[in-house]
């Protein structure tokens, strides 16, 4: 006998005022007052990460009810993509409008975990806005895509503090989504979706017709 499906219960969720109130609506730059826009978002069970138009990453810890801020040195530019990962250490990858990508290895109070904030940079490959980021489950691989169709693979050695990056794929249109699992990178662009097999360096298209 088929089981009766449980009824769907709709819930209304209110805005996260405790989060929004911790992010300024304007900042002062010299004599100018600049409006802060929220430009990127990612969440997991531990954190809510919010990117902004002033190059500041706001990271809210859901367990401690604390907001922390991280930024890029130098030019203040809009954050266009953020991606969280909880593995042995908590990591967050951040991409900007000019193609800068950085990884923050967060501090943890748990025994044996990272005790000092560390940053890794993906330098000099992307030249345009970062549109998608994807982690491997163990945090050793990061893939980043931009609006010119470039996809960069970054190998991270957190123990040695090393990040090596290389261009692995170039599509003729903007990258809109990336996802990685079991040595296969799923890539969606404005024109098509493909599977990129990272070991064989081969590409298989999903479907036959291009997107309109």
From TrEMBL:
GO CC terms: cytoplasm
Entry-linked Pfam families: WD40
Top-level taxonomic group: Eukaryota
GO biological process: protein exit from endoplasmic reticulum
Stored PANTHER family: RUBY-EYE2-LIKE PROTEIN, TECTONIN BETA-PROPELLER REPEAT-CONTAINING PROTEIN 2
Record-given protein name: TCPR2 protein
Organism encoding this protein: Herpetotheres cachinnans (Laughing falcon)
């Amino acid at each position: 006998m088929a089981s009766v499906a449980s009824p769907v219960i709709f819930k209304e969720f209110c805005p996260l005022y405790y989060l929004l109130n911790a992010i300024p609506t304007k900042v002062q730059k010299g004599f100018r007052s600049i409006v802060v826009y929220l430009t990127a978002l990612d969440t997991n069970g531990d954190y809510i990460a919010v990117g902004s138009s002033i190059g500041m990453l706001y990271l809210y810890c859901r367990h401690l009810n604390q907001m922390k801020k991280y930024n890029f040195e130098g030019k203040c530019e809009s954050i266009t993509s953020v991606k969280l990962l909880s593995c042995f250490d908590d990591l967050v990858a951040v991409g900007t409008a000019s193609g800068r990508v950085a990884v923050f290895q967060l501090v943890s109070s748990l025994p044996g975990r990272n005790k000092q904030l560390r940053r890794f940079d993906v330098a000099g490959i992307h030249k345009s806005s970062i549109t998608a980021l994807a982690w491997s489950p163990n945090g050793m691989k990061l893939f980043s895509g931009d609006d010119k169709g470039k996809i960069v693979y970054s190998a991270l050695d957190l123990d040695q503090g090393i990040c090596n990056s290389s261009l692995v794929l170039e599509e003729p249109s903007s990258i809109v989504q990336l996802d990685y699992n079991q040595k296969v990178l799923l890539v969606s662009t404005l024109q098509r979706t493909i599977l990129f097999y990272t070991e064989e360096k081969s590409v298989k298209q999903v479907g036959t017709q291009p997107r309109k």
